[in-house]
Amino acid sequence: LTYTKTHYLRSAATLSQCPGEITREVAFAGRSNAGKSSALNRLTGQKKLARTSKTPGRTQLINYFQLGELPLALVDLPGYGYAKVPIGVKNAWQKELGNYLQKRDALAGLVLLMDIRHPLTDYDKRMLEWANDNGMPLHLVLTKSDKLKRGAAKSALLQVSQAIRNSSTAVSVQMFSSLNGDGLDELKQRLNSWFLP
Ligand code: GDP
């Protein structure tokens, strides 16, 4: 699959607003600053693709990026943690997000991005638990691998691998760097396997 023809399709605030023309999608989640936008931009070779999701007004809940004219999409979920929205909005989001994750039939897998220097925060663990409970395939991406020396990066990868080894759902993990492209092919292969089962 080619990811360079990806373009912004639309944003959805609720499950019912999710596009019907998309039959398979992969959602990207992660706490703010994990490197989600940079990873989406690197993956699609488009410097400003994921910026839309940080533009006030356009930011709703779920941002859809379609792969060319295919019925496939990458979905950018709001970065949890530091989203600059009122608490009431945050709670409403949480509810809609849960609804989306649980009920969206097109959702084929979830990519969870974590800074390789701070993996498995409480929220990451909750997402992991949720994926396990719901049998949702999960791919963990340890971002900013360029920030660590090779040995330290490898041991972070090993540590996360250990933490997920008892998962009941399909979980995989890799390193990634938006800066130097480390792990880009591996990420594409995982997405391909979900889009073209
Ligand atoms: P988001 O909030 O998850 O979308 O995170 P961003 O993609 O905006 O990245 C947060 C910060 O981390 C920015 O300052 C990026 O430049 C930086 N960053 C993201 N990915 C990488 C990476 O692979 N390597 C390095 N060195 N910095 C990165």
Strand content is 15-25%
CATH H-level superfamily title: P-loop containing nucleotide triphosphate hydrolases
How does the overall form come out from the CA principal axes?
A: globular
> What topology, given as strand order, has the largest sheet?
1-3-4-2-5-6-7
In which range does the helix fraction lie? 25-40%
How big is the Rg? 16 Å
Uncertain segments of ≥5 residues (pLDDT<50)?
none
Which CATH architecture would you pick? 3-Layer(aba) Sandwich
End-to-end Cα distance: 12 Å
- Compressed to H and E, one letter per element, the order equals EEHEEHEHEHEH
The level-1 CATH class: Alpha Beta
Number of strands: 7
CATH overall fold name: Rossmann fold
Secondary structure category: alpha/beta
Structural domain tally: 1
The distinct ligands, each listed once, are:
guanosine-5'-diphosphate
Q: Mean pLDDT, nearest integer?
A: 90
Number of helices: 5
Largest sheet descriptor: 7 strands, mixed
